[in-house]
Each structure stands twice: as C-alpha cells, then as structure tokens.
Amino acid sequence: MKRFLLILCMLASPLWAVEPDEMLSDPALEARAREISSGLRCLVCRNESIDESHADLARDLRLLVRERLVEGDSNTEVVDYVVERYGEYVLLRPTATGANLLLWLAGPAMALIGMGMALAYLRRQSRRKAEGEATSAALSDAEQARLNEIMKD
Question: What is the pTM of this model?
C-alpha cells in the first residue's frame, strides 16, 4: 500500500506546482492561465513548463500570467509580453521563423551533407578498387613471371 501511495504521489507531483494561493477565483480565467503556462518553459528547469515546475521563477511567471489575464489581456498578448520580456527561449514550442528557421533546418541539412560525403567516399573507393583490379590484369608475361617469383619467397 505504501508503494502505491508513493507512486501516486510521484505521478501527481507536477499537479502540485500551482499553489492554491496562485489560482484565480474565475474558473474560465484559471483555465486560460493553465493553457498559457503549459506552453511556457521554466527558465530554471529547462524542459518543464512553468505549470509543472516548483522553481521560484516559475511561480513568478505563473503569477505574471495570471496578473496579465486579470488586467484583460488576451492569451496571445500575454504570451507576447512574456516573450518580449524573456526572449523566445521561454516558449516550449519555438516558432519556425527567422533565425529559428535556420536552426530547424541545420540538422537535416548537415545530415544530407554527411550522407553525400559518405556516398562520394564510397564511390571513390570502389573506383580505386576497380582500377587496381584492371591494372593487375594487364601485366605482361615478364611482369607476371617476376611477380610469381617474388610471391614464392
């Protein structure tokens, strides 16, 4: 039974990140705040949303999101405000435009370049091998006799 409770507590721990004193009394605003904060990265925890993080900075960001919603900002205005203040790194799903587009495309481009270089290397090696076989078959009788003599030793 203790193991079950421990596992249950471990699974539910991300739900405990939002403290009761942070929650808004309006359920619609709270739902919007949860939706926004689930897409924002905790700057301390890295790949964890501020909704799941227990860090103090994540708490501050959650409060900031709720404060902006209470002031009447739309979801996009809140996200834009946070991105303007902390940079695009705060987004869990960064946009694929501008400089980010270069980062999105760099990985596949490098993989294609690497495969092209490997293919060129393999072709070059197969050509060298084919040329080597062609030259060995074109030995004169004297060269072949000398080769056989050397191979006996």
Answer: 0.57
What secondary structure does DSSP assign to the chain, as a single string?
A: -HHHHHHHHHHHGGGGSS-TTTS-SSHHHHHHHHHHHTTBB-TTTSSSBTTT--SHHHHHHHHHHHHHHHTT--HHHHHHHHHHHH-GGGBSS--SSTHHHHHHHHHHHHHHHHHHHHHHHHHHHHHHHHHHHHHHHT--HHHHHHHHHHHH-
pLDDT of residue 112: 95
Hey, what are 29's tokens? 């605003």
- Regions of the chain with pLDDT less than 70: 1-2, 4-22, 132-137
Which residue in the block uniquely carries the two structure tokens 């290397």? Answer: 121
